[in-house]
Amino acid sequence: MTTEVVETVDLPEAVYEELKGIVGQDNISREPAVLDTYAFQYIAELLTGHSYLGRPCAVVMPASTEEVQAIVRLCNRESIPYKAVSTGWGAYGGSPAPGILQLDLRRMNRILDIDTDNMIAVVEPYVVGATLQAEAFKLGLNCHIVGAGSNTSILASATSVMGQGTTGVSTGFSNRNLLGFEWVMPDGELLRVGCFEDSDEWFTGDGPGPSLRGIIRGFAGAFGGLGVFTKCAVKLYPWFGPSRIELTGVTPEYDVEMPKNHIAYLIAFPGWEEMKEFGNRVGEAEIAFSMCHNAPAPMIAAMMESNMAFYDLWKGGLAEHFKYSLEVVIAAQSEDELAFQEGVLRDIIRRTKGREIISSKNDLRYYVDLTLGLGRIVRQAGPMATLRTIPPLAQFMIKSLMAGKRPSMFAKTLYISLVKQHLNARGIFRFGGSFWTSMGALTSWDCCIENAKEGEQIKRKWIDEGVLMDDGAENAWGGLYESGCYGHLEELGVYDQSDPICVDHGIDFVVDTVEATINKHLAMSLNATGDPFHAWYSPHVMNYHDHVASIKEEFDRANLSDASVYINRSIVESLMKMIEDGGGNFNFREIMDLANDEFVQTGPGTETEELAG
Q1: Of 88, 99, 277, 298, which alpha carbon lies 20 to 30 A from 12's?
Q2: Greater confidence, 115 or 362?
Q3: Do the beta carbons of residue 366 and residue 357 sit within 8 Å?
Q4: CB under 8 Å to 499, separation ≥6 — which residues?
Q5: Are the C-beta atoms of 293 and 389 separated by less than 8 Å?
Q6: Whether the Cβ atoms of residue 132 and residue 123 lie closer than 8 Å to each other
Q7: Measured between alpha carbons, how far is 317 from 320 in angstroms, rounded to an integer?
Q8: Is the four-CA dihedral 196, 198, 201, 204 of positive or negative sign?
Q9: Helix 272-285 crosses helix 445-464 at what angle (to 10 degrees)?
Q10: Beta partners for 28?
Q11: Burial class of residue 453 (count of CB atoms within 10 Å of its CB; 0-12, 13-18, 19+)
Q12: Which of 245, 240, 232, 228 is nearest to 113 (CA)?
C-alpha cells in the first residue's frame, strides 16, 4: 500500500477565474492542502489500494441552484468532470481519477419549508438529520435519519445513497421518503420532478406521468453520477414526544429525562430463530417506534469511556453472547396507548423466549427478567468466560455508580442512540479506525437473519487470519422497515487502515460475503455499486447493468458527472468478459485495480456513445 497522492491535473486559469466569478473568491480553492482533504477519505485504501482518491483540480462551494447550474454548464463547455458532495461519508463522494471539479454543497444548508398539515419538509443538500429533527420536534413531527448518524445529509440519503436507519419500522427509509425534488441534470438543465413542476408543491415525486425516482436512485442511488440534486422534499412522521429533548453531560454519556409514554428496551433471545420471530411479530403488530439490531461489540463500545475499558471487559468472553438481541423503543401518544403497546410487546417477548436486559422501566418484572436473561447468557458463555468478565464488569459498574450513574443510564443512552442517531458511527470507528460493510440486502426479515448467520461464519475466517478485529465475528447491523415488510442486516468488518495486512486483505472479506449472497441466494449486497461489483452481480440478476448504463448514457452523454461508484458500460462489460474467460475464477483485487486504472484513463469526460460502441 502506498500513501502517495495520485497525479495532479491542473485547472486552466481562465476556467478558474470564471468559476471564481460564479461563486466568489472566498468559495473556491485549488490549494494542495485543501484538495488533499477531499482526496483523503474513509475506505479509499480498500477501493484504490492507497490512502487517497484522485486529487480534485479545484473545490467550489456554490450557494444556490443557479450557481450549481452555471458550474455544471461550464464543466460541459470545457469538458471538465465534476462531482458534488454534501456532508460526505467516505470515498463515495470523490473519484479515483485526478482532476474532477469537486462541488462542496455546504453553503446550501437551509430548511426551506416544513408543511405541518401534509407532514413534508423541503431541504437543501447540507441540512443534516439533527437539524431537521430539532425543528420538526417543535411541530410535533419527526424525520427519518440514516444509521450513519445525525450529522449526515437528509437530501443525499434520499436522492443519491443508501438510506437505512433504526426508526425504519415506523418511518420507512430514506429512499422511500423522497417526494418532489429539484435536479440539475448532467448537462446543466434544471428539472423539477413530480408535482412541483406544475404546482410549486412538493407532495409527490411521481406525477403526473411516469416516475423518475427509479431513474435517479433505485436501491442505492447514483452516488453523484447523475448530476446534482439541489432541493428535495421528504416525508415527516408524527412525533409523540417533547418539542425538545433536553440532554445533560457530554458525548457519549448523555443523560436525558425519558419522555412521558416512551420506553426503551434491549431484549435478548436464545438464538437467531427466536430473534427472527420476535422481529416479524413486532413488525406485524405495528407497536414499535424504533427497532434495531446492534451487535454486542459496537453497542458496548459506544457506552464505554475508552478502548481499553472496552477491551478489558470484552476479552473476558461473556459480552459477545449478547448477540441475539434487538433494541426497541415504544413512543406512545397516551398512557392508554402505552399500556396497550407494552402489553403486546411483553406478550411477544414471552412467546419468543426473550428477556429484557436493558429497560427504562425499572419495575420488579424487569429485574426478574434481567436476572433470568443474564443467567441464560452465563450458561451460554460458560463458567470461565463469566469468571474472567466479573472483575472488569464490577470495576466498570462501581466506577459508574461513583460517578452518579444508575442502571437506567444505559436505557437512556440506548434511547438517545435510537431516536437521535448519534452513537452508531462512534461505536464502530473507535476500534481500529475503519470498517467496511457487506451483505445487507433489502429483503425479507427471514432472509436478513440468514445473511447474519452466514456473515458470522465468513468473518471468523478473516478474524483468525488477523485481518479483521475479533468482535466475536457477529457484527451485523440493521433492522426492519415499514412494519416489517422487509429489513436489512449488513455485516461490518472492522480493521486497522494503517496495517498493510488489513488493507491488502480487507477486500477479501467483502469478496467472500458477496460470493455467499450469490451462491446461497441471499439477495444483493450493499456492495452492488461500482463497476467491479456490477460485473460480478449483473449476470446473476438479468444483466441489470445494461439498463443502468443506458440511463447513464441517455442523461449524461458527455460522461462528465463522475460515475466511479455508479456505472461505466465499457468497464463493466470488459470485466464481465474477464470473469467469464476465467471460468468464474478471478482475483477481485486485480479486477478492482484494473477498473480503477481504466476509469482514470477513459472514464470521466469520455463520451458515452464511444464507450457504448
Answers
A1: 88
A2: 115
A3: no
A4: 432
A5: no
A6: yes
A7: 6
A8: negative
A9: 150
A10: 60
A11: middle
A12: 232
**pLDDT of the residue at 407:** 62
Digit-coded pLDDT (tens) for 380-407: 888 888 888 888 888 877 777 776 666 6
Report residue 99 as a C-alpha cell.
Answer: 482532476
Residue type, 259: P
Question: What single DSSP character describes residue 561?
Answer: B
The SS3 of residue 410 is helix
Contacts of residue 411, defined as CB under 8 A and 6 or more positions apart, other chains included, come to 258, 264, 265, 266, 358, 359, 360
Residue among 247, 550, 220 nearest 412 (CA): 247
- Based on its alpha-carbon atoms, the radius of gyration of the chain, rounded to whole angstroms, reads 24
Q: Is the peptide bond before 296 cis (omega within 30 degrees of 0)?
A: no
pLDDT digits (tens, 9 = 90+) for 101-134: 999 999 999 999 999 999 999 999 999 999 999 9
Residue 433, beta-bridge partner list: 496
Euclidean distance between CA atoms 140 and 114, whole angstroms: 11
pLDDT value of residue 220: 85
E-assigned strands of 109-227?
111-115, 120-123, 141-142, 178-184, 190-193
Q: Which domains does the chain have, with CATH numbers?
A: 13-104 (3.30.43.10), 111-238 (3.30.465.10), 249-430 (no CATH), 531-612 (no CATH)
Alpha carbon distance 484, 486 (integer Å)? 5
In the DSSP assignment, the letter for residue 540 is G
CA–CA gap between residue 542 and residue 562 (Å, rounded)? 25
Cβ contacts of residue 100 below 8 Å, gap of 6+? Answer: 54, 56, 57, 80, 81, 82, 83, 94, 562, 604
Using the 8-state DSSP alphabet, how is residue 6 labeled? P
The pTM of the full predicted model, rounded to 2 decimals, is 0.92
In this prediction, residues 551-555 reach a mean pLDDT of: 95
* 27 beta partners: none
Amino acid (1-letter code) at residue 182: E
Average pLDDT over residues 334-361: 94
**Maximal CA-CA distance, the chain:** 74
How far, in Å, CA of 313 to CA of 301, rounded?
A: 10
